Amino acid sequence: MINARPDSQHYEQLLRTDTPLIDVRAPVEFSQGAMPAALNLPLMSDEERAAVGTCYKQRGQQAAVELGHILVNGKTKAARLERWLEQCRLHPDGYLCCARGGMRSHIVQQWLREAGVNYPLVDGGYKALRHFAVQTIEARATWPMIMVSGNTGCGKTILIRSLPTGVDLEGLARHRGSSFGRTIVEQPSQASFENNLAVTLLKKSEGAPVTWIIEDEGRMIGSRHIPETFRENMTRSPIVVIEDPFEVRLERLKNEYFEQMSAAFLSVSDEETAWRHYGEYLHHGLFAIRRRLGMERFQQFTMVLDKALEHQRKTGLSDGHLAWLAPLLEEYYDPMYRYQLGKKAGQIVFRGDYRQVESWLRSSSYVSQAK
Q1: Does residue 97 have an active-site annotation?
Q2: Annotated catalytic residue: which of 55, 97, 98, 154?
């Protein structure tokens, strides 16, 4: 039998170290919000949980518990127990977790104990971890921030990821922010996005305030919104602006939107499906801004996009897309950026190309004074 470890209320330690969690909540609960290091191995399926919930309302707790044991019994129980045991073997340092650290995690804990494994649980369950995550964001949202701004394709995300206190909000939200910003991975739920943010803030600081380096984002990243307390400090923070040459930006965007994205679609589907989904991704991005472009220009760009897609599929070369991407930047994205940045001109503390901004951030008194 594995030596017993105590149940835990050390929420910061659990989250900061990515301690493995066996989350035994139903899949629908897990999809609404989970911690980054959690694996969903439910005690009950969504349908079983719904049936037990109905029984609880109609006949009370004892009847609901009895129904739960009837539904999760025999081969069903054995199969689920084996999966829990496998995770216990793989992660002997982990913990069980349910909604509130109550009946479900205690039942699984008891079944594991009967199988010869003592495995601790998280006191308070997901609700306690979630509460701690929200508190973490609220506390660290008050720390100093520097916003990184710049035209589309100037490497803001690359720079932020390279810095010790850089917080890649787009990466956490699994969306690049623009109309072409979605990735092949679905965005996390709002709660999971916030949980991911909290864990990132914990990992990048030891408690003493640091200066967060963050992209100058709007309120929304795809369909996820930045927590209000975090967003409020962002709007008041100093801004540095990357000003890279147009050709450099085009090359970055060609690699990101056309080469990396086509490769990503091809990595998860057969060729026919991948090219269809890749084409839909590009068309969707253009369609989303059709009104701002005007229908005539939108139709012109669409025709060029289709030709570039066909050429890319035949030859593997993505250069044809520059014929619609370059004017799209010049006519839509760059003017929009200049307008938005113009409203924040008083907050700008430095301008330069990528390397100059990187050097400034690494040596800035704004950063060093906050440490």
Answers
A1: no
A2: 98
What amino acid occupies position 139?
A: A
DSSP 177: S
| CA distance from start to end of the chain | 46
Integer CA distances (angstroms), 289 to 65, 92, 223, 285, 343, in order: 53, 51, 16, 7, 22
pLDDT digits (tens, 9 = 90+) for 66-107: 887 888 889 999 999 999 999 999 999 999 999 998 889 999
* Token pair belonging to 168: 């890649």
Residues of the chain with pLDDT > 70, as a percent, come to 97
Give the helix ranges, DSSP H, for the chain.
Answer: 11-16, 27-32, 46-59, 61-71, 74-90, 103-114, 125-140, 156-162, 169-173, 190-203, 228-236, 246-253, 261-268, 271-287, 290-293, 295-315, 322-328, 334-342, 354-363, 365-370
The total number of residues shown for the chain amounts to: 371
**Rounded distance, CA 334 to CA 152, Å?**
7
Helix ranges (H only) for 33-124 are: 46-59, 61-71, 74-90, 103-114
